[in-house]
Design brief:
- The longest helix has 31 residues.
- The chain has a five-stranded mixed sheet with strand order 3-9-8-5-6. The chain has a four-stranded mixed sheet with strand order 2-1-4-7, with no helix packed on it.
- Strand 1 and strand 2 form a beta hairpin.
- It folds into three domains: 85 residues, Immunoglobulin-like, CATH 2.60.40.420; 120 residues, A middle domain of Talin 1 (Up-down Bundle); 113 residues, A middle domain of Talin 1 (Up-down Bundle).
- The protein is α+β, with helices and mostly antiparallel strands.
- The chain is globular.
- It contains twelve helices and nine strands.
- The termini are far apart.
Length: 385
């Protein structure tokens, strides 16, 4: 039988070479890691990175080419934050409820110009987003603007009627709170909130009004005690969590005033055609931002989603004739996803049993599918934001 060869210890030179190679490999791995972090700060396939700290955005000024751009928003503060791209008071894109330490992508189609970036807390200073025209960008011929005259006119009638309902319900809510009638105030709140969410798309175009009407306590420095925290979330906390009308008179008065302001703005402003679909997708994504996969969906949140879906249904009905001629496949997918979400919501309404985690997961999945379908409308209609 042949004897096994004896093991020969490595020479000092080989050991030194091995150590050097290991060190070089460590340096290479560290360099790759650092470059992967820095890469999101500059243009690449993943887009542009914005870090939101407790005091604002880093960088506070960002320059990007016009067109569809993806931003990675990183929360480096100790509380959930939101990030918006705002043109004057009009919100073009937003991402809400980004948890501390996490990052969320946001994709927006931007024309050349200067925009503001909200940076976490509503009291933080805004950043600046400078969008530069790209000479080499090929432009796709857009559908004629006259094609949207009919849908926009019909939507103006719809918003006018909804605003009347909202003003009436908000006034009833204010009066019930002033009278200390909790039951009447709760019902008036439900009526007003439903209409508010039917109008979530046009309300969401106005950053200041949207913040007063729909911001959450976590968006403010002093949370529930912040004097700037008014609107539906403030009222819901008092009426349903505390079961009291005490201390809500100011918020109810402000609500009526904000509805009046909204009415005046929508009367004189025209809604950009591209915002019909993109704005509707954004408000569904905002609802999703506040509902993690492992969080139970409460009854108030469920009622909000029902109202948001009703508002999205109106948009789909307005744009369906255009999609039928331009992109039947897009319309088919959109209508299928809308119907699926409506079925899930109806099943929840018809069921007397408590909701399960599987029910919540199905609802979140159906909502995401509808939001994605809505974002496909503008490309199908060659609409630019």
């Amino acid at each position: 039988m042949t004897r096994n060869a004896e093991l020969v210890p490595p020479s000092p030179r080989a050991m030194r070479l091995g150590l050097v190679m290991s060190f070089l490999l460590m340096l290479f791995a560290l360099g790759v890691f650092i470059l992967s972090l820095e890469a999101v700060r500059t243009p690449n396939d993943d887009g542009y990175r914005v870090d939101v700290t407790a005091s604002g955005c880093e960088p506070n000024r960002l320059e990007v080419p016009a067109g569809q751009r993806t931003f990675t928003v990183v929360n480096r503060s100790d509380r959930a934050i939101e990030w918006e791209i705002v043109d004057g008071v009009m919100v073009l894109a937003e991402r809400e409820n980004i948890a501390p330490g996490l990052r969320q992508p946001l994709t927006a189609t931007l024309k050349a110009g200067d925009y503001a970036m909200t940076c976490g807390l509503l009291s933080n200073p805004h950043g600046t987003l400078h969008v530069v025209a790209g000479e080499s960008d090929a432009e796709t011929p857009a559908l004629s603007t006259t094609a949207f005259v009919g849908p926009l006119a019909e939507y103006r009638v719809y918003t006018t009627l909804q605003l009347r309902k909202l003003h009436r319900s908000a006034a009833e809510l204010r009066d019930a709170i002033a009278a200390g009638d909790l039951e009447a105030a709760q019902q008036a709140y439900r009526d007003a909130r439903r209409v508010d969410l039917h109008l979530a798309m046009p309300i969401g175009l106005f950053s200041d009004l949207d913040q007063r009407l729909n911001a959450h306590a976590a968006d403010f420095e002093q949370r529930e005690n912040d004097p700037a925290f008014v609107g539906f979330q403030r009222l819901a906390g008092g009426l349903f969590e505390q079961q009291s009308t005490a201390g809500l008179n100011g918020a109810a008065e402000q609500l009526v005033a904000d509805v009046d302001t909204l009415t005046a703005r929508l009367k004189s402003a025209s809604i950009p055609p591209a915002q019909l679909a993109d704005g509707s997708a954004r408000i569904l994504e905002t609802w999703l931002d506040h509902h993690r996969d492992d969080d139970a969906i409460g009854q108030h949140d469920l009622a909000d989603l029902v109202a948001l879906t009703e508002g999205a249904d109106k948009i789909v009905s307005l744009l369906s004739p255009l999609l039928e001629s331009q992109s039947p496949a897009t319309l088919h997918t959109l209508e299928a996803n809308l119907a699926a979400l409506q079925r899930d919501l109806q099943a929840d309404a018809d069921s007397s049993a408590s909701r399960s985690a599987a029910d919540d997961a199905d609802l979140l999945q159906a909502t995401r599918a509808l939001a994605r379908s809505l974002t496909g409308i503008n490309p199908a209609l060659t609409l630019e934001g």
